[in-house]
Amino acid sequence: MAAPQNLEQPRANTLNENFERERELSFLENLYLPEIFKALWYTLKQMFLPKVTLRYPEEKWDPPAIFRGRPVLVEDEGKERCVACGLCARACPPLAISMQANEDSDDPKERYPDFFEINMLRCIYCGYCEEVCPEEAIVMSKDYDIVFESREEAIYDKQRLLVPKEDLKERLDFLRNYRNRQFGQFWDFQEENNIHSVRDRDREFNSGLSLVEMLEQQEHNDNVEAESPWAR
Ligand code: SF4
Ligand code: SF4
């Protein structure tokens, strides 16, 4: 019967003289000085290279459009684009979004969020809310400078979340470009689709195509989508 293994005393480790893969250090390696001088030389070289650090917070970094900062609601002509469909709240992995829908029959958009909140302590900046939003109503902004002193302050309400679309132009243009590439010819993003009404949909929807032509168009679009590098 095999002797019980003594877990307190490992049989082989790097301090063991018999450890077969241990390498003998040369005289210079044992001195350590060459390695210290190499490190000093590397540090000296860095001192003369262009600086890449910023004096934050006096100097602010302007992130590129691909950057995912805090999610914001797009304000279009003085009101939110959001139609309170709830998709973003459903897709949000840490359940950071809560909202309540309301209706306004005088508004062509009909539905709007009575309240819309994002708990920024939960948000993980994944961007899923932006991905699923059918109205391009919630997007990831460039804002990374997020500070709060209490849990209550970390819950951003609708007023704090709303940002005019003019200030989000770079991100909106980036998304349009990215989505059009993603869907190939199939997806031609139209901004005017953002503000629409289900009530008016059938009245306004007229592609000018017969049913057969629409089916042919769909088949063509499906083929384009299948050939797209994004589909692989
Ligand atoms: S970025 Fe992600 S975690 Fe944050 S609100 Fe959107 S879906 Fe939720
Ligand atoms: S932000 Fe977009 S996905 Fe979220 S409720 Fe509003 S319209 Fe729907």
Automatic annotation (TrEMBL):
Database matches in Gene3D superfamilies: 3.30.70.3270
Binding-site list for [4Fe-4S] cluster 2: 92, 123, 126, 129
EC number: 7.1.1.-
Compartment list: Cell membrane
GO molecular function: 4 iron, 4 sulfur cluster binding; iron ion binding; NADH dehydrogenase (quinone) (non-electrogenic) activity; quinone binding
Main localisation: membrane
Binding positions ([4Fe-4S] cluster 1): 82, 85, 88, 133
Cross-referenced Pfam families: Fer4_7
A Gene Ontology cellular-component term: plasma membrane
Cofactor(s) this protein cannot do without: [4Fe-4S] cluster
Keywords of the record: 4Fe-4S, Cell membrane, Iron, Iron-sulfur, Membrane, Metal-binding, NAD, Quinone, Repeat, Translocase, Ubiquinone
One Gene Ontology biological process: aerobic respiration
Free-text comment on the cofactor: Binds 2 [4Fe-4S] clusters per subunit.
Membrane topology, from the record: Peripheral membrane protein
Domain 4Fe-4S ferredoxin-type: 69-102, 114-143
Reactions listed under catalytic activity: a quinone + NADH + 5 H(+)(in) = a quinol + NAD(+) + 4 H(+)(out)
Protein task: NDH-1 shuttles electrons from NADH, via FMN and iron-sulfur (Fe-S) centers, to quinones in the respiratory chain. The immediate electron acceptor for the enzyme in this species is believed to be ubiquinone. Couples the redox reaction to proton translocation (for every two electrons transferred, four hydrogen ions are translocated across the cytoplasmic membrane), and thus conserves the redox energy in a proton gradient.
Family, similarity comment: Belongs to the complex I 23 kDa subunit family.
Subunit details: NDH-1 is composed of 14 different subunits. Subunits NuoA, H, J, K, L, M, N constitute the membrane sector of the complex.
Protein name: NADH-quinone oxidoreductase subunit I
Chain's gene name: nuoI
